[in-house]
Amino acid sequence: MNDNPQINEIISGLRNGATTPEKAADILSELKRTASFADLDHGRAVRCGFPEFIYGEGKTSEQTLAISAEIASSGKPLLATRLSAESAKPLLEKFPSGDYDEISRTFLMMPENSDDPKGEVVIATAGTTDLPVAREAERTLTACGCGAKLIPDAGVAGIHRLFKSLPALESADAVIVVAGMEGALPSVVGGLIPCPVIAVPTSVGYGASLGGLTAMFSMLNSCANGITVVNIDNGFGAGCAAARIVNAIHA
């Protein structure tokens, strides 16, 4: 059989009469158009524990729509990140069961037969302005089949807000901490809980925050040993990292 599940489906359909030659030709024509600018990795879910997703920034609406159609027809979760509201409109028209989140700028559609989420990852933000990155991580975890809980606005400027959420943090499989400014929150969380902590610096802050560099350097130099740091504003990467941890625990 072919490595591409869509082609296998076409072949099976032709054999059992469920697919006409004309319909098969139309599907193959669409696949050919997609392959002219994208070569989708349909085996990623087996290797990595989550399927291939779409980075929407820089792609045309036509490209995003064609790639999305191929992913959706494979029966895998469809997640497109860094999409403007305008770019999301064709996706909403094509896939009405999906939804666009303006805060995180993501489009998400889960298959109808999705399993219940496994594990739980807690996402804590230092401030409300960190929510776009945190929401990107949350929706990435959903697409990866993992449970996610968001705790917003728990930064060090009012540290008592964090303490009331300690039970949830302590019981999580992994914690993602999203912070801008001086990036202090991951160090505090990392010194309080036993599970893996993934720090996400954001570009939030005044001039000396240097677009997130100050927060990133602070997190990289954290005295709370064992913290993992991803790139600035990379909620998606943090979500995928946490999903790997959940997959390992709940294999």
Strand arrangement in the largest pleated sheet: 6-5-7-8-9
Annotated CATH architecture of the largest domain: 3-Layer(aba) Sandwich
Helicity level = 40-55%
In the CATH scheme, the class of the largest domain would be: Alpha Beta
Structural category: alpha/beta
The general outline is elongated
Number of strands: 9
Mean pLDDT: 87
For the report, how would you describe the main beta sheet? 5 strands, parallel
Structure description:
The protein has 251 residues and is an alpha/beta fold. It folds into three domains: 36 residues; 77 residues, 2-Layer Sandwich (Translation Initiation Factor IF3), CATH 3.30.110; 132 residues, Rossmann fold (3-Layer(aba) Sandwich), CATH 3.40.50.1970. Helix content is 43%, strand content 16%. The chain contains eleven helices and nine strands. The strands form two sheets. Strands 6-5-7-8-9 form a five-stranded parallel beta sheet. Strands 1-2-4-3 form a four-stranded mixed beta sheet, sandwiched between helices. Strand 1, helix 4 and strand 2 form a beta-alpha-beta unit. Helix 2 packs across helix 4. The model has no long low-confidence stretch (mean pLDDT 87).
